[in-house]
Design a protein that fits this description.
- There is one protein chain.
- The chain is an alpha+beta fold.
- It is built from 6 helices and 10 strands, in the order E-H-H-H-H-E-E-E-E-E-E-E-E-E-H-H.
- The protein has one domain (5-172, 181-231): Sandwich (Jelly Rolls).
- Strands 4-8-5-6-10-9 form a 6-stranded antiparallel β-barrel.
């Protein structure tokens, strides 16, 4: 049976638009795993050369304070979006979980201070136990990813000036989801990750969007220090994409 594809926004003038749909259809139909999907997507993005392919859109997004949606498609009960969004200096995206979303994000401009967390388990209706897995500064080309069961929670702010992020998110493609007291749809679940135990694990309290904005919205991550035990458990390194298009040099005979 053919899927019902509904395109809501279509500004992404790239062959990757069709390739993304093919990849996500393979994921939706169980032909590839989430890990394979994200790996293949990064390979495609690495060849695209986002800096050049999206030069007009990057300029438009940097001049705007509203996210620039390049593509939005619904496929049956699933949906995926491609967008650029600016993060102003001093602005933070408060720490948050995602529900049934796979995201791949690439820093295109500026510097982002990022913290990523791995959910361990749900303690009760309002608390999630987590482990800090990354606390790093990211620059152009650096990637951060999230999925239902890997690095689902993150928190980031722009440092030293505005930043711009390229984002591909796919919602509804995960076959299983983390236990939640209430199903949040495809939205964010905000969480306060600042309480640590003696082993360095985080005991995150789920909070409302208003509380998250008041507590974290205009404060740098450095205002919330991390205990040494938690930092000792973080991972180093990460994926960096070349933002310039890869070209094969001509051979002179």
């Amino acid at each position: 049976m053919q899927p019902v594809v509904r395109t809501k926004t279509d500004r992404w003038r790239s062959p990757l638009s069709a390739s993304l749909l093919q990849l996500l259809e393979a994921l939706r139909c169980g032909q590839i795993s989430r890990i394979d999907y994200q790996k293949s997507l990064l390979e495609l993005l690495g060849r695209e050369g986002l800096e050049e392919a999206l030069a007009p859109e990057i300029a438009e997004a940097m001049a705007s304070h509203v996210q620039l949606e390049l593509l939005r498609r619904h496929v049956n009960e699933c949906r995926h979006t491609v967008l650029l969004y600016r993060v102003d200096e001093g602005e933070a995206h408060p720490p948050h979980e995602h529900f049934n979303m796979i995201s791949t994000q690439v820093v295109v401009r500026g510097t982002i201070h990022l913290r990523e967390y791995q959910r361990v388990d749900r303690e009760d209706a309002d608390h999630v136990r987590m482990r800090l897995v990354r606390d790093a500064l990211l620059g152009p080309g650096d990637v951060f990813e999230a999925s239902e069961w890997e690095r689902n929670v993150h928190w980031f702010s722009a440092e030293g000036g505005p930043a711009l992020i390229f984002n591909i998110n796919a919602r509804g493609y995960e076959p299983s989801t983390f236990p939640n007291a209430h199903e949040p749809g495809f939205g964010r679940l905000y969480v306060d990750p600042t309480r640590y135990d003696h082993e360095g694990l985080v005991h995150g309290e789920e909070i409302s969007p208003q509380v998250a904005k008041e507590r974290f919205g205009m404060r740098p991550l450095s205002a919330f220090p991390v205990p040494e035990k938690a930092l000792a458990r973080t991972e180093t390194g990460g994926t960096t994409l070349c933002l310039k298009q890869t070209r094969v040099p001509l051979q002179v005979l």
